[in-house]
Protein: G domain-containing protein
Amino acid sequence: MVIDHYQVPAWATKGWLRVLSKEFPTLAFHANINKSFGKGSLLSVLRQFAHLKRDKQAISVGFFGYPNVGKSSVINTLRTKNVCKVAPIPGETKVWQYITLTKRIFLIDCPGVVYHNKDSETDVVLKGVVRVTNLKDAADHIGEVLKRVKKTHLERAYKIKEWDDENDFLLQLCKSSGKLLKGGEPDLMTGAKMVLHDWQRGRLPFFVPPPKQEEESEEPNVNGVDIDDAVDGNEASAAIKAIADVLSSQQQISVPVQKDLYSENELKGEATDQAPNHNAEDIPASDSDTSEQDSPTKIPSEPLLC
Structure:
């Protein structure tokens, strides 16, 4: 698993890294062609996987997951050039695309996968699965955004100090930003879509803290790795150990974070009950969207490959 997100505090990223590494190999990553994080670690893991499949002429590595999570951008970062199309809207990746990484390693850029679950329509929208421009009820989802995002972040983003409810928030936002219809009436739909765009592009800080963990460190889980018969036991053990070492090393080094999104207390973990991590590499804020986006344009009711 690749965690491609630097818009959360470093302690939260490393906390989730420890939690998820107990289930399957997990790496933190920042997808950026010019200033990436985790590229060397991911390349090392892929090379070790290729070594474990020596009887194959080549291996193919599929990048799959929800739409709008950065799959294409990870591939572009590994290749250090734009080989996969990315855009600040869902729906760009429509077909599988094979990318050559090395002579023996091929990468597959896959369209986003949407699973049938119990998510509400608002949950689906806030996961970035649908295009905001196609929503006919954008204002219906603003209440949940106001619940998730801290008031201080909303005040800083939109220069609004007090509001009674989501409707009052949108009214003030439209007036302050000039989103008005003929006659001076607030354009609530446009205002709501502006907020949802900012949410989907990571401009409104939000994250779920990792669950509390015991202090005892555990080795990352590399079980379940398929090993070919052509690889003897010693070679397989060495490759597995190399993968585990790469995963463990990431838990000991600093991870990138966009510091200007959070207060000092949030960066230190004092806003939650979680233990803080003080090592963080600062990455300046940018209006550019380096994440990959791909998804259907309507809320799905069944599993989709889109």
About this structure: Confidence is low (pLDDT under 50) at residues 271-306. DSSP finds ten helices and nine strands in the chain. The first strand starts at residue 2 and ends at 4. Residues 49 and 283 are 31 Å apart (CA to CA).
